[in-house]
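Hi R.,

Here's the chain you asked about this morning:
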Amino acid sequence: MGPRAEGRSPGRRRIASAGALLALATLAALAWATLHDETSVATDNAYVKGNVVVLTPQVPGTVVSVRTDETSRVEKDEILVTLDDTDARNLLRQKAMQLARVVRETKTMYLNAGTLRSALTVRTAHVDRARAEVARTAERLERREALYARGMITREDIEGARASHRTALSELAAAEAAVGEAREALGAQLALVDGVQIEQHPAIGAAAAEMRDAWLAARRTEIRAPLSGHVARRNVQVGQHAQAGANLMSIVALDQLWVEGNFKESQLRHIRIGQAARLSADAYGQSVTYSGRVAGLGAGTGAAFALLPAQNATGNWTKIVQRVPVRIALDRQQLDQHPLRIGLSMRVEIDIRDRSGPRLGERAPEDASARTPIFDALGSGADEAVRRIIAENLRPGTARAAGPHPARQPSGPR
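And here is the predicted structure, written out as C-alpha coordinates:
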Protein backbone atom coordinates (compact mmCIF):
# COMPACT_ATOMS: atom_id res chain seq x y z
CA MET A 1 0.00 0.00 0.00
CA GLY A 2 1.41 3.40 -0.99
CA PRO A 3 1.65 6.58 1.04
CA ARG A 4 -1.33 8.19 -0.79
CA ALA A 5 -3.66 5.35 0.21
CA GLU A 6 -2.49 5.44 3.79
CA GLY A 7 -3.25 9.14 4.02
CA ARG A 8 -6.86 8.64 3.07
CA SER A 9 -7.60 5.81 5.48
CA PRO A 10 -8.61 7.92 8.57
CA GLY A 11 -11.13 10.00 6.51
CA ARG A 12 -12.72 6.95 5.08
CA ARG A 13 -13.04 5.44 8.51
CA ARG A 14 -14.76 8.59 9.81
CA ILE A 15 -17.24 8.57 6.91
CA ALA A 16 -17.98 4.92 7.48
CA SER A 17 -18.53 5.53 11.19
CA ALA A 18 -20.89 8.44 10.48
CA GLY A 19 -22.83 6.33 8.00
CA ALA A 20 -23.13 3.52 10.51
CA LEU A 21 -24.36 5.90 13.20
CA LEU A 22 -26.91 7.39 10.80
CA ALA A 23 -28.15 3.94 9.86
CA LEU A 24 -28.48 2.97 13.51
CA ALA A 25 -30.41 6.18 14.27
CA THR A 26 -32.72 5.56 11.33
CA LEU A 27 -33.34 2.02 12.45
CA ALA A 28 -34.02 3.20 16.00
CA ALA A 29 -36.46 5.85 14.75
CA LEU A 30 -38.23 3.30 12.59
CA ALA A 31 -38.40 0.85 15.49
CA TRP A 32 -39.79 3.53 17.83
CA ALA A 33 -42.37 4.64 15.26
CA THR A 34 -43.37 1.05 14.58
CA LEU A 35 -43.71 0.32 18.28
CA HIS A 36 -45.65 3.54 18.86
CA ASP A 37 -48.05 2.84 16.02
CA GLU A 38 -48.74 -0.61 17.35
CA THR A 39 -49.64 0.57 20.84
CA SER A 40 -51.59 3.80 20.30
CA VAL A 41 -53.11 6.19 17.80
CA ALA A 42 -53.62 9.89 18.43
CA THR A 43 -55.23 12.94 16.90
CA ASP A 44 -55.70 16.57 17.79
CA ASN A 45 -58.71 16.82 15.46
CA ALA A 46 -61.09 16.26 18.36
CA TYR A 47 -63.77 18.40 19.98
CA VAL A 48 -66.11 18.27 22.96
CA LYS A 49 -69.68 17.27 22.13
CA GLY A 50 -72.89 17.21 24.16
CA ASN A 51 -76.67 17.23 24.00
CA VAL A 52 -78.09 20.68 23.33
CA VAL A 53 -81.74 20.59 24.46
CA VAL A 54 -83.84 23.33 22.90
CA LEU A 55 -86.61 24.67 25.13
CA THR A 56 -89.78 25.29 23.11
CA PRO A 57 -93.39 26.10 24.12
CA GLN A 58 -96.16 23.66 23.24
CA VAL A 59 -98.79 26.40 23.02
CA PRO A 60 -98.53 30.00 21.76
CA GLY A 61 -98.70 32.88 24.20
CA THR A 62 -97.20 36.11 25.47
CA VAL A 63 -94.20 35.72 27.77
CA VAL A 64 -94.95 37.23 31.19
CA SER A 65 -91.88 36.01 33.09
CA VAL A 66 -88.41 34.54 32.47
CA ARG A 67 -86.90 33.03 35.60
CA THR A 68 -83.37 32.26 34.41
CA ASP A 69 -80.59 33.82 32.41
CA GLU A 70 -77.65 32.96 30.18
CA THR A 71 -75.02 30.67 31.80
CA SER A 72 -77.28 30.00 34.83
CA ARG A 73 -77.77 26.47 36.10
CA VAL A 74 -81.32 25.13 36.16
CA GLU A 75 -82.75 21.99 37.70
CA LYS A 76 -85.06 19.47 36.11
CA ASP A 77 -88.78 20.38 36.32
CA GLU A 78 -87.95 23.97 37.26
CA ILE A 79 -90.28 26.61 35.75
CA LEU A 80 -88.17 28.71 33.40
CA VAL A 81 -90.70 30.65 31.31
CA THR A 82 -94.34 31.53 32.01
CA LEU A 83 -96.85 32.48 29.32
CA ASP A 84 -100.03 34.52 29.80
CA ASP A 85 -102.75 31.97 30.62
CA THR A 86 -105.84 34.22 30.43
CA ASP A 87 -107.09 32.81 27.14
CA ALA A 88 -106.22 29.26 28.18
CA ARG A 89 -108.20 29.57 31.41
CA ASN A 90 -111.19 31.06 29.63
CA LEU A 91 -111.12 28.21 27.15
CA LEU A 92 -110.93 25.73 30.01
CA ARG A 93 -114.02 27.24 31.65
CA GLN A 94 -115.90 27.12 28.33
CA LYS A 95 -115.01 23.46 27.82
CA ALA A 96 -116.04 22.66 31.39
CA MET A 97 -119.45 24.27 30.83
CA GLN A 98 -119.76 22.51 27.49
CA LEU A 99 -119.08 19.17 29.19
CA ALA A 100 -121.76 19.90 31.79
CA ARG A 101 -124.27 20.77 29.06
CA VAL A 102 -123.47 17.62 27.07
CA VAL A 103 -123.86 15.50 30.22
CA ARG A 104 -127.33 16.95 30.84
CA GLU A 105 -128.35 16.47 27.22
CA THR A 106 -127.10 12.90 27.26
CA LYS A 107 -128.89 12.28 30.54
CA THR A 108 -132.07 13.53 28.84
CA MET A 109 -131.61 10.90 26.13
CA TYR A 110 -131.36 8.19 28.78
CA LEU A 111 -134.45 9.54 30.52
CA ASN A 112 -136.32 9.68 27.21
CA ALA A 113 -135.45 6.06 26.64
CA GLY A 114 -137.06 5.22 29.98
CA THR A 115 -140.11 7.31 29.12
CA LEU A 116 -140.50 5.60 25.75
CA ARG A 117 -140.11 2.21 27.39
CA SER A 118 -142.93 3.09 29.82
CA ALA A 119 -145.07 4.37 26.96
CA LEU A 120 -144.55 1.10 25.11
CA THR A 121 -145.68 -0.80 28.19
CA VAL A 122 -148.82 1.37 28.45
CA ARG A 123 -149.65 0.96 24.78
CA THR A 124 -149.09 -2.78 24.99
CA ALA A 125 -151.63 -2.83 27.83
CA HIS A 126 -154.04 -0.91 25.58
CA VAL A 127 -153.64 -3.63 22.95
CA ASP A 128 -154.43 -6.30 25.50
CA ARG A 129 -157.50 -4.37 26.62
CA ALA A 130 -158.60 -3.83 23.02
CA ARG A 131 -158.22 -7.55 22.28
CA ALA A 132 -160.33 -8.36 25.31
CA GLU A 133 -162.97 -5.92 24.09
CA VAL A 134 -162.91 -7.51 20.62
CA ALA A 135 -163.42 -10.95 22.17
CA ARG A 136 -166.27 -9.64 24.34
CA THR A 137 -168.07 -7.92 21.45
CA ALA A 138 -167.58 -10.97 19.21
CA GLU A 139 -169.17 -13.22 21.83
CA ARG A 140 -172.01 -10.74 22.35
CA LEU A 141 -172.52 -10.50 18.58
CA GLU A 142 -172.65 -14.29 18.30
CA ARG A 143 -175.36 -14.50 20.98
CA ARG A 144 -177.33 -11.67 19.36
CA GLU A 145 -177.19 -13.35 15.98
CA ALA A 146 -178.59 -16.57 17.48
CA LEU A 147 -181.42 -14.68 19.14
CA TYR A 148 -182.10 -12.72 16.00
CA ALA A 149 -182.32 -15.93 13.99
CA ARG A 150 -185.08 -17.15 16.37
CA GLY A 151 -186.82 -13.77 16.16
CA MET A 152 -186.32 -12.93 19.79
CA ILE A 153 -184.62 -9.50 19.20
CA THR A 154 -185.13 -6.73 16.74
CA ARG A 155 -182.89 -5.79 13.81
CA GLU A 156 -181.76 -2.67 15.62
CA ASP A 157 -180.32 -4.83 18.42
CA ILE A 158 -178.27 -6.97 16.02
CA GLU A 159 -177.02 -3.94 14.14
CA GLY A 160 -175.92 -2.35 17.42
CA ALA A 161 -173.97 -5.48 18.36
CA ARG A 162 -172.28 -5.54 14.96
CA ALA A 163 -171.36 -1.84 15.26
CA SER A 164 -169.85 -2.44 18.72
CA HIS A 165 -167.75 -5.30 17.33
CA ARG A 166 -166.48 -3.18 14.43
CA THR A 167 -165.58 -0.40 16.84
CA ALA A 168 -163.63 -2.84 19.02
CA LEU A 169 -161.73 -4.09 15.97
CA SER A 170 -160.86 -0.53 14.96
CA GLU A 171 -159.65 0.28 18.45
CA LEU A 172 -157.51 -2.88 18.42
CA ALA A 173 -155.92 -1.89 15.10
CA ALA A 174 -155.22 1.61 16.41
CA ALA A 175 -153.70 0.21 19.62
CA GLU A 176 -151.47 -2.17 17.66
CA ALA A 177 -150.32 0.67 15.38
CA ALA A 178 -149.52 2.77 18.45
CA VAL A 179 -147.47 -0.09 19.85
CA GLY A 180 -145.51 -0.35 16.59
CA GLU A 181 -144.88 3.40 16.61
CA ALA A 182 -143.77 3.31 20.26
CA ARG A 183 -141.51 0.33 19.56
CA GLU A 184 -139.82 2.16 16.66
CA ALA A 185 -139.35 5.32 18.71
CA LEU A 186 -137.87 3.29 21.57
CA GLY A 187 -135.56 1.46 19.15
CA ALA A 188 -134.31 4.75 17.71
CA GLN A 189 -133.65 6.10 21.19
CA LEU A 190 -131.97 2.90 22.38
CA ALA A 191 -129.68 3.07 19.34
CA LEU A 192 -128.24 6.22 20.94
CA VAL A 193 -127.90 4.99 24.50
CA ASP A 194 -128.26 1.23 24.70
CA GLY A 195 -125.28 -0.90 25.76
CA VAL A 196 -123.16 1.94 27.19
CA GLN A 197 -123.08 3.64 30.56
CA ILE A 198 -123.83 7.33 30.52
CA GLU A 199 -120.33 8.41 31.60
CA GLN A 200 -118.91 6.38 28.71
CA HIS A 201 -121.27 7.78 26.08
CA PRO A 202 -119.43 9.02 22.94
CA ALA A 203 -120.91 12.51 23.24
CA ILE A 204 -119.65 12.84 26.80
CA GLY A 205 -116.33 11.28 25.81
CA ALA A 206 -115.81 13.84 23.04
CA ALA A 207 -116.65 16.76 25.36
CA ALA A 208 -114.40 15.31 28.05
CA ALA A 209 -111.52 15.02 25.54
CA GLU A 210 -111.95 18.68 24.58
CA MET A 211 -111.86 19.65 28.24
CA ARG A 212 -108.67 17.63 28.76
CA ASP A 213 -107.09 19.43 25.81
CA ALA A 214 -108.04 22.77 27.35
CA TRP A 215 -106.66 21.60 30.71
CA LEU A 216 -103.34 20.66 29.09
CA ALA A 217 -103.19 23.97 27.22
CA ALA A 218 -103.59 25.82 30.52
CA ARG A 219 -100.89 23.73 32.18
CA ARG A 220 -98.51 24.18 29.25
CA THR A 221 -98.30 27.92 29.85
CA GLU A 222 -95.62 27.01 32.41
CA ILE A 223 -92.52 25.88 30.50
CA ARG A 224 -90.27 23.67 32.60
CA ALA A 225 -86.70 22.47 32.25
CA PRO A 226 -86.64 18.92 30.83
CA LEU A 227 -83.27 18.21 32.47
CA SER A 228 -80.69 19.76 34.74
CA GLY A 229 -77.99 21.80 33.07
CA HIS A 230 -76.78 25.25 32.12
CA VAL A 231 -78.64 27.79 30.00
CA ALA A 232 -77.19 28.80 26.66
CA ARG A 233 -78.45 30.93 23.77
CA ARG A 234 -81.35 32.54 25.59
CA ASN A 235 -83.57 34.11 22.93
CA VAL A 236 -86.73 34.87 24.92
CA GLN A 237 -87.71 38.23 26.42
CA VAL A 238 -90.63 39.35 28.57
CA GLY A 239 -93.51 40.63 26.44
CA GLN A 240 -92.50 38.57 23.45
CA HIS A 241 -95.27 36.57 21.74
CA ALA A 242 -93.89 33.06 21.47
CA GLN A 243 -95.27 30.68 18.89
CA ALA A 244 -95.52 26.96 19.54
CA GLY A 245 -92.17 25.36 18.72
CA ALA A 246 -90.19 28.62 18.92
CA ASN A 247 -86.60 28.40 20.18
CA LEU A 248 -86.63 30.11 23.58
CA MET A 249 -83.29 28.92 24.97
CA SER A 250 -81.00 25.90 25.09
CA ILE A 251 -79.98 23.76 28.04
CA VAL A 252 -76.69 21.85 28.07
CA ALA A 253 -75.91 19.14 30.61
CA LEU A 254 -72.20 19.75 31.16
CA ASP A 255 -71.90 16.56 33.21
CA GLN A 256 -72.91 14.42 30.22
CA LEU A 257 -70.32 15.45 27.64
CA TRP A 258 -68.23 13.30 25.36
CA VAL A 259 -65.40 13.85 22.88
CA GLU A 260 -65.57 13.20 19.17
CA GLY A 261 -62.14 12.40 17.76
CA ASN A 262 -61.84 12.46 13.98
CA PHE A 263 -59.25 9.79 13.16
CA LYS A 264 -57.77 9.13 9.76
CA GLU A 265 -59.04 6.07 7.96
CA SER A 266 -55.54 4.60 8.16
CA GLN A 267 -55.72 4.79 11.98
CA LEU A 268 -58.96 2.80 12.33
CA ARG A 269 -57.49 -0.64 11.72
CA HIS A 270 -56.88 -1.52 15.37
CA ILE A 271 -59.42 0.76 17.11
CA ARG A 272 -62.00 -1.26 19.08
CA ILE A 273 -64.93 -0.27 21.29
CA GLY A 274 -63.96 -0.29 24.97
CA GLN A 275 -60.30 0.67 24.51
CA ALA A 276 -58.85 3.14 26.99
CA ALA A 277 -58.06 6.68 25.93
CA ARG A 278 -56.12 9.60 27.34
CA LEU A 279 -57.31 13.10 26.59
CA SER A 280 -56.16 16.62 27.19
CA ALA A 281 -57.89 19.92 26.58
CA ASP A 282 -56.32 23.06 25.20
CA ALA A 283 -58.23 24.94 27.91
CA TYR A 284 -56.20 23.25 30.67
CA GLY A 285 -53.06 22.22 28.82
CA GLN A 286 -51.06 19.12 29.60
CA SER A 287 -51.48 19.63 33.36
CA VAL A 288 -54.94 18.00 33.26
CA THR A 289 -55.41 14.56 31.76
CA TYR A 290 -58.81 12.93 31.25
CA SER A 291 -59.45 9.21 31.20
CA GLY A 292 -61.91 7.90 28.68
CA ARG A 293 -62.90 4.89 26.64
CA VAL A 294 -64.00 4.30 23.09
CA ALA A 295 -67.81 4.25 23.09
CA GLY A 296 -68.42 3.87 19.37
CA LEU A 297 -67.24 4.55 15.84
CA GLY A 298 -69.14 6.63 13.34
CA ALA A 299 -71.20 4.96 10.64
CA GLY A 300 -69.48 6.99 7.91
CA THR A 301 -66.94 9.66 7.18
CA GLY A 302 -67.68 13.31 7.66
CA ALA A 303 -67.63 13.88 3.90
CA ALA A 304 -70.35 11.25 3.41
CA PHE A 305 -72.77 13.16 5.66
CA ALA A 306 -71.84 16.63 4.44
CA LEU A 307 -74.56 18.93 3.15
CA LEU A 308 -72.82 18.92 -0.24
CA PRO A 309 -70.99 15.56 -0.51
CA ALA A 310 -67.88 15.43 -2.63
CA GLN A 311 -68.43 14.31 -6.23
CA ASN A 312 -65.39 12.19 -7.01
CA ALA A 313 -66.62 10.84 -10.35
CA THR A 314 -64.91 13.66 -12.24
CA GLY A 315 -61.97 13.90 -14.62
CA ASN A 316 -59.80 15.78 -12.14
CA TRP A 317 -59.49 13.84 -8.91
CA THR A 318 -57.14 14.09 -5.96
CA LYS A 319 -57.20 11.51 -3.22
CA ILE A 320 -57.85 12.99 0.23
CA VAL A 321 -57.45 10.96 3.39
CA GLN A 322 -60.88 10.68 5.00
CA ARG A 323 -61.64 10.85 8.71
CA VAL A 324 -64.21 8.92 10.75
CA PRO A 325 -65.58 10.28 14.05
CA VAL A 326 -64.81 8.13 17.09
CA ARG A 327 -66.87 8.76 20.22
CA ILE A 328 -64.91 8.87 23.48
CA ALA A 329 -66.82 8.63 26.75
CA LEU A 330 -65.49 10.74 29.63
CA ASP A 331 -65.43 10.17 33.37
CA ARG A 332 -68.09 12.27 35.13
CA GLN A 333 -66.01 12.81 38.26
CA GLN A 334 -63.23 14.29 36.16
CA LEU A 335 -65.79 16.51 34.41
CA ASP A 336 -66.95 17.77 37.81
CA GLN A 337 -63.37 18.59 38.80
CA HIS A 338 -62.38 20.12 35.47
CA PRO A 339 -65.52 21.19 33.57
CA LEU A 340 -65.48 21.32 29.79
CA ARG A 341 -67.62 23.22 27.31
CA ILE A 342 -69.12 22.11 24.03
CA GLY A 343 -66.81 22.81 21.11
CA LEU A 344 -63.50 22.91 23.02
CA SER A 345 -60.46 21.45 21.25
CA MET A 346 -59.08 18.20 22.61
CA ARG A 347 -56.19 15.84 21.95
CA VAL A 348 -57.02 12.13 22.06
CA GLU A 349 -54.67 9.18 22.32
CA ILE A 350 -56.20 5.69 22.21
CA ASP A 351 -54.40 2.64 23.57
CA ILE A 352 -54.97 0.02 20.88
CA ARG A 353 -53.11 -2.88 22.50
CA ASP A 354 -56.32 -4.53 23.70
CA ARG A 355 -58.08 -5.52 20.48
CA SER A 356 -60.67 -7.90 21.92
CA GLY A 357 -63.57 -5.45 21.72
CA PRO A 358 -66.09 -5.21 18.86
CA ARG A 359 -65.62 -2.99 15.84
CA LEU A 360 -69.30 -2.00 15.61
CA GLY A 361 -71.50 -0.54 18.31
CA GLU A 362 -74.17 -2.65 20.02
CA ARG A 363 -77.64 -1.79 21.27
CA ALA A 364 -77.55 0.81 24.03
CA PRO A 365 -78.88 -0.27 27.45
CA GLU A 366 -82.29 0.95 28.55
CA ASP A 367 -80.84 3.20 31.25
CA ALA A 368 -78.77 5.00 28.61
CA SER A 369 -81.81 6.22 26.70
CA ALA A 370 -82.69 9.90 26.96
CA ARG A 371 -85.96 10.55 28.78
CA THR A 372 -87.62 13.25 30.84
CA PRO A 373 -90.52 12.66 33.26
CA ILE A 374 -91.69 16.28 33.49
CA PHE A 375 -94.57 15.74 31.05
CA ASP A 376 -95.89 12.60 32.76
CA ALA A 377 -97.89 14.53 35.35
CA LEU A 378 -98.90 17.35 33.01
CA GLY A 379 -102.47 16.09 32.78
CA SER A 380 -102.79 15.17 36.45
CA GLY A 381 -106.10 16.42 37.80
CA ALA A 382 -107.78 16.60 34.40
CA ASP A 383 -109.46 13.20 34.69
CA GLU A 384 -110.57 13.96 38.24
CA ALA A 385 -112.06 17.30 37.14
CA VAL A 386 -113.90 15.57 34.29
CA ARG A 387 -115.34 12.94 36.63
CA ARG A 388 -116.43 15.61 39.08
CA ILE A 389 -118.31 17.58 36.42
CA ILE A 390 -120.02 14.44 35.13
CA ALA A 391 -121.06 13.39 38.62
CA GLU A 392 -122.35 16.85 39.57
CA ASN A 393 -124.60 16.93 36.50
CA LEU A 394 -126.14 13.49 37.05
CA ARG A 395 -129.00 13.30 39.48
CA PRO A 396 -129.16 10.29 41.81
CA GLY A 397 -131.66 7.67 40.77
CA THR A 398 -131.72 8.57 37.06
CA ALA A 399 -128.66 7.67 34.98
CA ARG A 400 -126.05 7.03 37.63
CA ALA A 401 -122.34 7.34 36.83
CA ALA A 402 -120.04 4.44 37.57
CA GLY A 403 -117.84 4.60 40.64
CA PRO A 404 -118.01 6.78 43.75
CA HIS A 405 -118.55 10.52 43.60
CA PRO A 406 -115.09 12.09 43.27
CA ALA A 407 -113.76 14.69 45.66
CA ARG A 408 -113.97 18.30 44.62
CA GLN A 409 -110.97 19.76 42.85
CA PRO A 410 -110.33 23.16 41.31
CA SER A 411 -111.33 23.24 37.66
CA GLY A 412 -108.18 25.14 36.70
CA PRO A 413 -104.67 23.80 36.33
CA ARG A 414 -103.28 25.64 39.33
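One quick note: The chain has a mean pLDDT of 86.

Cheers,
M.
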